[in-house]
UniProtKB/TrEMBL annotation:
InterPro entries: DUF2000, Pep_tRNA_hydro_II_dom_sf. This is DUF2000 family protein.
Length: 136
């Protein structure tokens, strides 16, 4: 099935494995919150055990270094796409309000980005992530 939109997550490649997983989880929650229409129906197995709904379309995960993350952020913003962001400073906080303060304290050009997530029309996402490779 081809979707009209695409979800892309870009993770800085030099992070530790636990950090990459943490960042991806937080960023995809931002997509789910901003785009509730992308959430599918709840799951149920053959034993009638019920499970939570998931995002109902593929999520493409790209790897990038710091400059490529900044470039992707700039490309997103110039195309009117509002991304979810995760900065290195957020690893030092323990709750959502502190995360927001950590981001608010730094100008956009100085953010030490470790991840971005965005959902937009397929062609727009393709232009934002142009040159990036899938994360390995």
């Amino acid at each position: 099935m081809q979707f009209d939109t695409k979800i892309a997550v870009v993770i800085r490649t030099d992070l530790q494995a636990w950090q990459k997983l943490n960042v991806a989880s937080f960023l995809t929650s931002g997509i789910a919150a901003a785009f509730p229409e992308c959430i599918g129906e709840p799951y149920e197995d053959a034993s009638s055990t019920k499970y939570l709904s998931l995002i109902g379309q593929p999520i493409l995960i790209y790897g990038a270094d710091g400059p490529a993350l900044s470039r992707a952020l700039d490309r997103a913003l110039t195309r009117g796409v509002k991304p979810a962001v995760y900065t290195e400073d957020m690893f030092k906080t323990t709750h959502d309000a502190a995360n927001r303060e950590a981001v608010r304290a730094v100008a956009r050009t100085d953010l030490n980005l470790v991840g971005l997530a965005m959902r937009a029309e397929r062609k727009v996402i393709d232009k934002i992530v142009d040159g990036l490779k899938f994360h390995s």
